[in-house]
Design a protein that fits this description.
- The protein has about 475 residues and is α/β, with parallel strands linked by helices.
- The chain has three domains: about 20-135, Alpha-helical ferredoxin (Fumarate Reductase Iron-sulfur Protein, Chain B, domain 2); about 150-245 and about 405-480, FAD/NAD(P)-binding domain (3-Layer(bba) Sandwich), CATH 3.50.50; about 245-400, FAD/NAD(P)-binding domain.
- It contains 19 helices and 16 strands.
- The protein has helices at about 20-25, 40-45, 55-60, 65-75, 80-90, 90-100, 110-115, 120-135, 160-170, 185-190, 200-210, 225-235, 260-275, 280, 300-310, 330-340, 405-410, 445, 450-480, and strands at about 150-155, 175, 215, 235-240, 245, 260, 290-295, 315-320, 345, 350-355, 360-375, 380-385, 390, 395-400, 400-405, 440.
- Helix 15 (about 300-310) packs parallel to helix 16 (about 330-340).
- The longest helix has 29 residues, at about 450-480.
- The N and C termini lie far apart (about 65 Å).
């Protein structure tokens, strides 16, 4: 009987793909770690304990078959491992790169609880699908027979693209409308290349384009067509816009030049990486080179900003966060990467205002301390009046999160129901809005969240839209 290759977590230590030296990786926007060699990937996969109740899968929003494709990887059956991972995810190599595994699958790995360090699930997932692309195992989208119905999808991010793929497989004519000049949403313009190189996103987009999905770029609903016009054109419509409106900074001096929103800053940097002409970058307005940079916020977007500023050649980069390290929302791995690259974290600190003569020159900072827990259970920050100080700053980047835009106004759809937070109100049994045939998913429904949740929503809404479209076709047939 062949020896079982699994349960090696005692004899084999945890090992992630080796990161390039911090000084070297801070000089470019390439991903910071190399891929596993095949033997290393198999070794790490073999550490899986093959739990009867796999908490890694339970805590994965997509409920990926993680123990199963880890076993296949350990056995050298890599193509089967890819096919299994591809069953539940439209973008496994993207999730392998950008999911906060330390808060999801790896953070709930049973052997982590036993003190033997989690299986490196994300890195193995990335390795499996990168290998599949290289070996030609990633097949074209299998387009089903035409159903004679069309779907309009507003938003070309991960949720919209996932639904587009599944509905195309089901035989629908699919049109995706996006305000940007490239598809991918935040995958393309919000996440820096050192976390997600752009050719990884573009090859996914190209695969969908080759499947006959129609992409309408530089298209703004409300300007180029109202929501009602799209409803008249298509048999069903999906709103998957995400949330892009930066939370306002209502502080003295917030209107000074040099106080910029995180997404504007990251988009300019990513456009530059594509080779686009970016006037705001060339003028220095959205370029950190030679500047004292202060980033405000403690989430993953803030980490993207500080690490981008390092790569642009900033003179100094400081991150202000009002809580301590243990209570920040961003990935601890990203904090560690940032520190290695030269970012200074100023914990328990919040901005009071900005000073300068037309252009920001300084940030007034309040020292904070943690008080009693708030409604979420986290200890609430409060001012420490004895600790105010000032930081020099030529560029301040605010990364305080995102809110929904006013879609009823923006889309010319005053009858579209939204919540008091501006997110779209849906029937959670069907993901349909109050408008017949109009569905909504992702951050525009749940609020700012993770890419993997957008993919999950895109997968789930496909069946609801399919049911609606079949019913509509039957009604029309009877009426005819």
């Amino acid at each position: 009987m062949a020896k079982d290759p699994m349960l090696k977590f005692i004899s084999k230590p945890q090992a992630y793909p080796e990161k390039r030296a911090a000084q070297l990786r801070a000089e470019d926007f390439a991903e910071i770690a190399e891929r596993y060699a095949s033997d290393d990937a198999a070794d790490q996969a073999s550490r899986c304990s093959q739990c009867g109740v796999p908490y890694c899968s339970v805590h994965c929003p997509l409920h990926n078959h993680i123990p199963d494709w880890l076993r296949l990887t350990a056995e050298g059956r890599l193509r089967e491992a890819y096919e299994l991972s591809n069953l539940t995810s439209t973008m496994p190599e993207i999730c392998g790169r950008i999911c906060p595994q330390d808060r999801l699958c790896e953070g709930n790995c049973v052997i982590e609880f036993s003190g033997h360090d989690a299986v490196t699930i994300g890195s193995v997932e990335k390795y499996i699908t990168d290998t599949a692309w290289e070996q030609g195992w990633v097949e074209p989208v299998a387009v089903g027979p035409s159903r004679g119905q069309s779907v309009g999808i507003i938003g070309g991010g991960p949720g919209g693209l996932t639904t587009a793929e599944y509905l195309r497989v089901a035989g629908y004519d699919v049109h995706v409308y996006d305000r940007y000049d490239r598809m991918g949403g935040l995958l393309t313009y919000g996440i820096p290349g050192f976390k997600l190189e752009k050719d990884v996103v573009m090859r996914r987009v190209k695969r969908l384009e080759d499947a006959g999905i129609h992409f309408h770029t530089n298209f703004e609903v409300g300007r180029d067509a109202t929501l009602d016009a799209l409803r008249a054109k298509h048999d069903a419509v999906l709103i998957a816009t995400g949330v892009y409106k930066a939370r306002a900074v209502s502080l003295p001096g917030g209107d000074l030049n040099g106080v910029v929103a995180a997404l504007d800053y990251l988009t300019a940097s990513n456009r530059k990486g594509f080779g686009d002409a970016v006037p705001a970058f060339e003028s220095g307005a959205l370029n950190a080179a030679g500047k004292n940079v202060v980033v405000i916020g403690g989430g993953d977007t803030a980490m993207d900003c500080v690490r981008t500023a390092i790569r642009q050649g900033a003179k100094s980069v400081k991150c202000l966060y009002r809580r301590d390290r243990e209570n920040m929302p961003g990935s601890q791995r990203e904090v560690a990467n940032a520190e290695e690259e030269g970012v200074e974290f100023v914990w328990l600190s919040g901005p009071k205002g900005f000073e300068g003569n037309g252009q920001v020159e300084r940030v007034q900072v309040s020292k904070m301390r943690l008080g009693a827990p708030d409604a979420s259970g986290r200890r609430a920050p409060e001012n420490d009046p004895q600790g105010d100080f000032t930081l020099d700053a030529d560029l301040v980047i605010t990364a305080l999160g995102f809110e929904a835009e006013d879609l009823p106004v923006l889309f010319g759809a005053a009858d579209l129901n939204v919540t008091r937070w501006g997110t779209i109100r849906v029937d959670h049994n069907t993901q349909m809005t109050n408008l017949d045939g109009v569905f909504a998913i992702g951050d525009i429904v749940r609020g700012a969240s993770l890419v993997v949740w957008a993919i999950r929503d895109g997968r789930d809404v496909t069946q609801h839209m399919h049911n609606y479209l079949k019913s509509k076709a039957s009604r029309e047939k009877v009426a005819a």
